[in-house]
Amino acid sequence: MNYNAFNQFCGSMHATTHVVQWGDAHVWKVGGKVFAIGGWGKQGQPAFTFKTSNLNFEFLSSHEGYRPAPYFASRGMKWIQQTDTSGILDEELKYYLSESYRIVSLGLSKRKQQELGINPLPKP
Q1: pLDDT of res. 83
Q2: How many CB atoms neighbour CB 113 within 10 A?
Q3: Is 37 helix (H, G, I), strand (E, B) or coil?
Q4: pLDDT in tens, 79-114
Q5: Is the pLDDT reported for residue 72 higher than 80?
Q6: What local confidence, expressed as pLDDT, does residue 122 receive?
Q7: How far apart, in whole angstroms, are the C-alpha atoms of residue 2 and residue 52?
Q8: DSSP β-bridge partners for residue 27
Q9: Using CB atoms within 10 A of its CB, is residue 37 exposed (0-12), middle (13-18) or buried (19+)?
Q10: Most buried of 21, 37, 54, 71 (most Cβ within 10 A)?
């Protein structure tokens, strides 16, 4: 995946915003909270960072093509960076970006979720 495809995919999710910050990284947010970052790869190579569940963090930390995210994981946060951007892991990346969006959006207040029109409560 390249940065254009990354930005297009993240931009397709509801109520997201995009900013370029932190050393020209593509930062995607929902409700003002970061859920995905495109940037910070070694030697100018693309890399994509996202929040994970505890289980996925443990699995991906030792999976080829991924590593605990610099800056985040060292502070105890469950963030992973995909370093293999050859295209082989693109479908996995889309899944993990969607999960990161879900995790972060569910962490927003119910009021904020309602304002943004995300995560509607099931009707009884």
Answers
A1: 87
A2: 19
A3: strand
A4: 999 988 778 888 999 999 999 999 999 999 999 999
A5: no
A6: 67
A7: 21
A8: 19, 37
A9: buried
A10: 37
β-strand partners of 50: 36, 80
Rg value, the chain, Cα: 14
Residue 79's identity, in one-letter code, is W
Which token pair is 90? Answer: 């693109």
Tell me whether residue 87 is exposed, middle or buried, using C-beta atoms within 10 angstroms of its C-beta: 0 to 12, 13 to 18, 19 or more.
exposed
Mean pLDDT, rounded, of the chain: 89
Long-range contacts of 32-37 (CB under 8 A, 24+ apart): 33/104, 33/107, 33/108, 34/104, 35/10, 35/97, 35/100, 35/101, 35/103, 35/104, 35/105, 36/6, 36/10, 36/97, 36/100, 36/101
Q: H-helix or E-strand containing 50?
A: strand 48-51
Phi-psi category of 42—alpha, beta or left, where left has phi over 0 and alpha has psi -120 to 50? beta
Task: Give residue 38's pLDDT band: very low, low, confident or very high (50, 70, 90).
Answer: very high
